[in-house]
Fold each of these.
Amino acid sequence: MTNTAGSRGGRFDQLFVNLGPQHPSTHGVLRVGLTLEGEVIVKAEPDIGYLHRGSCKLAETRGYHQCVVLTDRWDYVSAMPNNLAFCLAAERLMGLEIPARARHLRVVMCELNRIASHLLFLGTYGIDLGAFTPFLHAFREREMILDLYEMLCGARLTYNYIRIGGVMSDITQEWAAKTREFLGFFKPRMREYDDLLSFNPIFLARTEEVGLIDARQAVAWGLSGPNLRGSGVSYDVRKADPYSSYERFDFDVPLGKRGSCWDRYYCRALEMRQSVRIVEQALDGLPAGDIAAKGVSKTPKPPPGEAYAHVEASRGDLGIYLASDGGAAPFRLHARAPSFINLAILQEMLVGRKVADVVAILGSIDIVLGEADR
Amino acid sequence: MTAEALASKVAGRFPQVVMAAVPVKDYCTLRLTSASELAPVVGFLKEELGFDYLEMVTAVDWLGPVSPEGFVRGGRNPNPFASEEPPTPPAARNPGAPYKPVFDLLWCLANIPERSRVFLRLEVPRDRPVVPSLCAIFKAADWQEREAFDLLGIAFEGHPNLKKILTPDFLVGHPFRKDYAHVKDRYDE
């Protein structure tokens, strides 16, 4: 145990602080072992695995259609992109062609899910920093999206809606009308969040100069999603490797400038506006036709081979690697989980920061431990 | 950059690195012949071709299909969709499958401005799964290599902190290996 001189000539011992695993600001079961010298962090060790269920191994004894259910349980606050990533990989393996209507419906659901997920982030991040009101506003809107999902497929979080070959069910006129009604309600609310939280002086003071990640560092650690774009790196899978007819929609990729906690926060706030644009375009231009490819086997046995597909999930680049041996179950399923990879940078980022900033930095990375641990 | 153009650029410097016989569908997949090539090839891709984003590190155990016995508790298969008949031997089930006692490692590197990505593959024998670590080149390799070590038991030489990450401390073995058998612990009934 080393001693260093404190600012008043006293001596500080190193102090080990165990943050989590049961702590509301760690957003799940994350434990961070912090070594402090006075108020300054000298070592941070994130400890994960409390929620490890081995879902990728479970997939090796289940049929392809059954695996979609497993993917719901990774990022449980935005499960649609998980479904989509797995289905895209399986479809690539099987060589399936997806009808245009199904591709549009997938886009609608994924973007609504992105709004719901970012609303959850916005609300809980406010709570992390002591602002309770935005949380109630954000959850009111998120609840509306969950109601839409419940109407669509009966589930509020674990949808199993996107299936191999297409989607589970078509939308009704009533659903489309309610979604438009929600978008109309939601659009003016985004300015409300800006007034309440984004440009609140206390919030700015807590986040603007905190948790800086420069672009080189972000790329080196393999960050993705708003965490990477907050540092000014323009990388969005929807643009870089388009899937599910995203190339047909007109939207921007919001970028941050300095990679601070506020930049990452505001990237997400701006992304919600873009998601609204995409949902509106997709609903307006929804093509007629089938909602699922014809002739998808109930027990598909794709020929031996390997496929990789990735999507821009709410938290970043979610990649699915599938290997087939010709059997009815995937031979190997690997998920490149954005939360898992985004979390690794904590061990470098927290060092040298004050302990009071830990929660601000942790919250701004926006992790879901179900996905980090799989 | 097309897959062929990229492969020929790499082959210009490293003639033994060729396109893999079984590619990851729709992506450029290069097959390394020995573990010692990994660091130079990755360094070349990063420094001269701009692949500075390590997207994924993983591995496949090609021993054969997993035996369901490892999951069965109390003699009964909890999966209601599983057949009641005794399992057929794996080789008879999937005659065309390339089973062999190797780990096939897979790295995915991306070039963000040019929007291209490349997969590198390397086979290592199952009885001595040692490959060099990429931690010094990409920090993103840190946790992903730890994950592959934890779940598949692949030793990444030169990794500064190679220890378990996902499984609990008391768990014995590497659960994502195909021959993993569950050892009863205090959480079994």
Amino acid sequence: MIRVENFTKVYHPGTANEIVALHDVDLTVHEGDFITIVGSNGAGKTTLFNLISGNQPPTAGKIHVNGTDVTRDPEYKRAKYIGRIFQDPLLGTATNMALEDNMMICYRKGFKGLKISLNSRRRRFFREQLVQLDMGLEHRMKDNVGLLSGGQRQALTLLMMVLSEPDLILLDEHTAALDPKNAALVLGLTQEFIDRFQLTAMMITHNMKDAIEYGNRLLMMDRGEIILDVSGPEKRNLTVDKLVEEFHKIRHRTLESDEVMLSEP
Amino acid sequence: MIEAIFIEGLIYGLLVLGVFITFRILDFPDLTVDGSFPLGAAITAIMLTNGYGVTLTLAVAVLGGCLSGVCTALIHNKLKVPNLLAGILTMTMLWSVNIRVLGNRANLPLMRRETIITDVLELTGGLIPRAWALLIFFFAVTMIVKLLLDLFFRTDLGMTIGAMGDNQQMVVTQGVNPETLKIIGVGLSNGLVALSGAFIAQYQGFADVNLGRGIIIAGLASVMIGEFVLRSNRIFVLTLRVLIGSICYRGLMYLGRVYGYHINLTPSDLQLITGVLIIALLAATHLRGQARWKGLQQHVGPDELDAAGPAAGTVPQTSGNASGASMNSSKAKLKTGITHD
């Protein structure tokens, strides 16, 4: 269980460029939650992820993971139990290394010693795992990852992350840079893995339909605040129209966001 | 004379392996080398002069090199100083340190001292000519170091270091502290550089604080010559071509010294020649990359190339990042970095 208390992030404090990216955010993520997060640009979605993953320190506030205060832990320490996938497919894998080497590095989190762990048994295991992706990657384990397409790389990153069994996975628009077909494929795999391994997940998306269709809980963010938090039956009955209407009711202005509206098919 | 080129090429090959680790694998252009190379030489000279054993001397020299690398990495990590500046800082400080190590002298001869050279010659007992005995010995040493490095970059740790040079965020996401990896990598690199300096001091028979001047450029030139003659992404070949590059570079410098005499070149012009050589190599790899790219376009058609997806996108413009390695790649076969197969 992850508990976020009063998370606040201010960039350039005390200057003319001061930006409050996150304002006093409280959030409790229960085990098994699959939370989708929507909001226009600058709403603070990615900042929230950066603070949860430890990529940036919060200006104020605390984060507890399973009862322990980890606010001061650096990103690499939290990475042992928090997995993250970025929008850019290049960030999850090492371009100039073979697929099997990439999988080997990701197989076990934390500092690695002088063992040579990539043996034929490990290779067989990796091959079996790659079959699940159904992309023919099991035949390309010696290829450099740079030869794969963006969709294949993102699917591989997802698989590698799942294999390390994290307590929480953060998906930062991980399908936004892919073409529609690959995006659907990776999203499908995401759902499949979350179900099968009963993962706890948070997913930022610009696509309201996806946000409604996937997950058991939906957060809407605006100007650094969580303005809507729905789950259970209420979430199941949501539609895009209702969501837009809800936003209007709460903020007394229309949801003018370019991208939120544009991304609807 | 030809043996001397090979011997020098192999000894400097250890330094070039160090330069290769930082510049190519870690993506950490480390200039500490200009200071850690003479440090290795200085430690060797002073310890042998004071009667310490050869093995202990070499061990201390390597340790000294490692520590200077660690120093650079720490300055970079802890104070968030750019890696180039961190290297220059350590290098500058090492110049003073080296004079201290040499006992407040700028150089120290090793005449009539027991060195690794005399040990080797004693062992062979005059059975084979001096030059050949040394060549065989340094070939063996360099190959052992090279093979150990190959092995290292196949271990889990070595692979992670390779991945960090490629994509630091990935390493962080995998729960590894990149700062630790940099300390290990830069330390290892400078250990090799100091070992090279230790051998050179014994081979040439003296240590001098100015031994390291411009040595990083010589190392880089050697790396690039190697990349020019052999193309591969396998670690075994990558380290092999580093040594080949080093020998070629020494050969070229020999030619420069011998034939340069006729056109009024002096040894002090060699730095200029090295710099021009690097620029020429950069230009050549750049042109070659462009030519291959054009040839490929005609062959496949640009549409199909684009369909290779964003991941395959090292277009010629972006790959002019001063690295011969990435220029070796064609769009269809992106074989630039290391695979550990």
